Amino acid sequence: GDGDFFIVENQLEVIRERIAASIKSALVTISLGMLAFLAGGIGIMNVTLATVFARTREIGVRRAIGASRRDIMLQFIVEAVMLGLIGGVLGSALGYLWGVPVKVMLGMGGSPVKAWMPLVAVFIAAFTAFVFAIYPAWVAAGLKPADALRAE
Fold first, then answer.
1. 64 and 149 in contact (C-beta within 8 Å)?
2. What is the per-residue pLDDT across 6-47, written as a single tens digit (0 to 9) for each?
3. pTM for this structure?
């Protein structure tokens, strides 16, 4: 019956603090992921736009011999998606190859990377490339053959 020999704790507050910390961690991770999504997408869009302007004459020739707007758009979208796929595969491979040894050296154990995670990363990279290539492809498809052939 002496109150000095035991302590009664309510774990509810500890659980609430841990849940709040988990939510903060998840929001930071999601924010960084979205930032990477936007940065990668803008990079792909700039590369695709540069390709469009560098190949204006080619676009004009293709349009003059009968390529449709759809054909031109498809060309640039496929090129951008291939760029995204290659970047996603290389990024996943380098992340895995770099991350596992570093974690082992730091004594953090093996990598929790599951087989589906790199596949999802590659899919997201390809999807990002697709979304951000639509505008440059639309610009390329909108070039008139005569104007494109005059360009240098």
1. yes
2. 666 788 988 999 999 999 999 999 999 899 889 989 999 999
3. 0.75
Gyration radius (Cα) of the chain, Å: 25
Concatenating the DSSP letter of every residue in 7-73 gives: ----THHHHHHHHHHHHHHHHHHHHHHHHHHHHHHHHHHHHHHHHHHHTHHHHHHHHHTT--HHHHH
Give residue-wise pLDDT tens across range 112-136.
Answer: 778 788 899 999 999 999 999 999 9
DSSP string, 88-129: HHHHHHHHHHHHHHHHHHTT--S----THHHHHHHHHHHHHH
